[in-house]
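Loading example: each entry is read as two labelled lines plus one structure line.
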Amino acid sequence: MATQQAEPELQEIFAKHEKIYPREVSGRFSRLRVISLLGLLGIYYLTPLLQWGGRQAILFDLPARKFYIFGLTLWPQDFIYLAAILILAGLSLFFFTALLGRVWCGYACPQTVWTEAYLWMERKIEGNRSRRMKLDKAPFSARKIRIKILKHTAWVTFSLWTGFTFVAYFTPMGVLANKLLSLSLGPWETFWILFYSFATYGNAGFMREQVCLYMCPYARFQSAMFDSDTLIVAYHPERGEPRGSRRRGTEPKSAGLGDCIDCNVCVQACPTGIDIRDGLQYECIACSLCIDACDEIMDKMSYPRGLIKYTTENSAQGKTQHILRPRIMVYAAILLVLCGALFVHVSQRIALDLDVIRDRNTLYRETRDGLIENVYTLKILNMDSDSHRYILRAEGIDGLKLVTDQEEIMVEAGSIYQMVVRLQADELNLEQRSVPVSFHLQAADANHLQIVEEARFVGPGKT
Amino acid sequence: MRPPIPENIPRAQQIISVLWPSFLVAIVASGLFFSAFNPVDLIPFNLDIDISPLAAYSIGFFLFWILAIASSYGTLYFTISNCRFLNKQGR
């Protein structure tokens, strides 16, 4: 019989997603996780309820173009603070990742937090791991439909509450709630509530670990932030291998076995569906559920805990471990400096700004008295939460006259006042064609509110 | 075994690889641009359109997203097209 060439086997690289049913785990790390999750969720849902001085404490008022953070009112002019906060966030991420590995992923990331909340609801309604799997494999029945509807109703309700709270960071919660109850929500508010609800429902209900695996950029470059002293979750093959099940009471070494009984509980507990015994993988979000799961089994077997545990590459290889190393110290130093600088800057921020725009239609004018005149448009930004009266004066040229229609300028809290002023100077006092002058604005009722703004006074050049 | 080159990527993953990065970029672009310019002021004066500030921000964001989608889609298209070309050449 002639031998046939076998057809090259067509192996699909991209397989359809199989749902992961994480096994229920209890232990010290999972308790720590629950505290973190509840804390963060609590912060998210309760913050819009906080009030400060008659308004919501944290409010990103887009229409008014002001961000309120407790007593601080940030204007678009304060954009530098947003940039600084973003840089700080990035640096802290590098710092904590270099030190503690993917502790963000496992304990704090919103995707993890909401997925765990939805998983909790799923467990409460559909049961534990084996029951959930059985339910999904079962054909549709009245009972299955009932359970599924109950679960999705819980999920949708939670999603809507999440979406509503998200929009409440931009429109005050009280106003939003009133509008909702009287069915008078604006079209765009409705859109964003539904959009964010749908995103939560989709990400936490269905996408789950796929967000970590495929969508999250942090997962991809985390290895660039690790070094040999970064905390990771690892299985100890020198202790566990060779793995295999054994009869009760058997001394593992005498049977030529390691401590790993190949129960696969670590795989079942993993929310991203990996086997940590294969080594550190990028899919591992360091949630430490496998640690708790294995510790539980080790306790039952009366073996010591820690077959899977938090460790570092150096520690696992028996080398000395360094916590304080150059990378950590440099990150910490930069963080402290930036934090300090930001704090100082914000605390010394003067809630007053002055914009001076010289009238460019003419270089200069000559008044009837023979003085050279320049016209300026001034914008006074009162960024404080109180109204103030301001006094304006100008300096820079001998005998400079400030012509304005108001002695004291009253500006309401949080508003901008625009006015036109004129500066007049004698031609003889002008050293050159363009002379630097300065406008000094001082609040009459607050000593610390003062600002100086430079400008130019143009006259005829020396002929 | 089919090699995992871009032209073999499933349609769903192609769509996400265009929509998701462009979404992130649109958020950054909106944040930066609307910190400097109030979107309500950007509405052409003579068109007599009266929309709420939230609507202006929302439409602005979606315009940025559409722009970024065009860019990401262009990248994806040329990647796939180049792969096909290189494959035909046997490289």
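Chain B touches chain A at residues 1-2, 4, 8-10, 13, 16, 20, 31, 35-36, 38, 40, 52-55, 57-58 (CB under 8 Å).
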